[in-house]
Specification:
By secondary structure, the protein is an alpha/beta fold. Helix content is about 35%, strand content about 10%.
């Protein structure tokens, strides 16, 4: 970057923490222990507790309804065994070793939400159901018993599960998943991960423009689904909302657009208990790193997803997870509140 104002904004970004994605076995081996060690060192030098946030993201058959971010493990018994022994068990071992500092785990974005809405329409999701359910049960049993670890299961976003029937079904799915992991505990849920839905959008209401969604922003979504989950018998209902890219209403023409949206802006800064009167909202947090691509716009690529070729998807875009400088620069320029 040569623009001095953008450089200054980028420097401010460095002062806030971001979730660390353990999206392959190799990346988990590279990033988990080193960051736990770093937190321990910071604690020893400062005397303060250092919270580290990781995204657990390597289920067999991952991201079954999309193509851009399919994972390394396939939906089969052999890869489920690898997920358990080479991934979850290793995470458990490191978390047990570094138990003096608090850790938050954001668990398997998109997976359970796909089981709510896409089992019948997407064969890959039907093929993955067994592995999503067994994988969650295993990780909750293993990691949910650690007293210094708080886990949040992903619940998609307002324009995925916001409709009344989807929320009702979600309550049943998530209650079943949590009970399957006993005696492990789940602190709550995370919404809007890697998405762009604004926290509040007073311009939208339940009507044709929103396909009659009664929850057309993340605030109304959490207000509604918190009640649904409690009605479903879920005892611990708290939320961490991803505000890394929802500061500005993006250019998308349909709220289901999710890939590298133009008009992006950084949202609320990471903050605990950020909204008065919403004691069930634990935090705003930057879960998706701004500047990491959602997926390639190269139509010839094996992982090309049509959404990344839509009109409001920024192009040319690299593969999912790779650095996308132009998207990053637009995000910091449009930050709301400003950086």
């Amino acid at each position: 970057m040569s623009d001095s104002s953008l450089i200054a904004k980028a420097e401010k970004m460095k002062t806030y923490s971001n979730a660390i994605w353990l999206d392959t076995i190799k990346n988990m081996q590279s990033w988990l222990e080193s960051n736990l060690q770093g937190a321990q060192s910071q604690h020893q030098s400062s005397g303060k507790d250092i919270l580290t946030v990781f995204v657990v993201y390597d289920l067999p058959g991952r991201d079954c309804h999309a193509l851009a971010s399919n994972g390394e493990l396939l939906a089969n018994d052999g890869d489920l065994a690898r997920y358990k022994s080479e991934y979850i068990d290793v995470i458990e071992g490191h978390l047990k070793t570094y138990k003096s500092q608090p850790v938050v785990l954001i668990v398997e974005p998109d997976s359970l939400a796909n089981l709510v809405t896409n089992l019948e329409s997407t064969p890959a999701c039907a093929d993955s159901e067994k592995y999503y359910l067994e994988g969650h049960a295993y990780l909750i049993k293993k990691l949910g018993v650690l007293p210094h670890v708080a886990m949040y299961l992903d619940i998609g976003h307002a324009f995925w599960l916001g409709w009344d029937d989807n929320r009702e079904k979600a309550g049943k799915v998530y209650a079943k998943v949590i009970s399957s992991g006993a005696p492990g505990n789940v602190r709550g849920f995370t919404d809007n991960v890697s998405n762009y839905t604004p926290w509040e959008d007073p311009t939208l209401s339940r009507g044709p423009e929103t396909e009659w969604n009664p929850c057309p922003d993340e605030k109304r979504y959490l207000e509604a689904i918190s009640k649904d989950f409690k009605s479903a018998g879920i005892k611990s209902v708290y939320f961490v909302s991803d505000s890394s890219r929802n500061g500005k209403k993006v250019d998308r023409k349909h709220p289901g657009e999710w890939c590298n949206q133009t008009g992006v802006g950084v949202g609320a800064r990471p903050q605990a208990s950020p909204v008065s009167g919403m004691d069930y909202l634990d935090a705003f947090y930057w879960i998706k790193p701004l500047g990491e691509s959602d997926g390639t716009s190269d139509e010839s690529a094996a992982r090309f997803d049509g959404y990344c070729g839509h009109e409001t998807a920024m192009k040319p875009a690299p593969e999912a997870g790779q650095w996308f400088q132009k998207h990053f620069e637009q995000g910091i320029k449009n930050a709301n509140p400003p950086l």
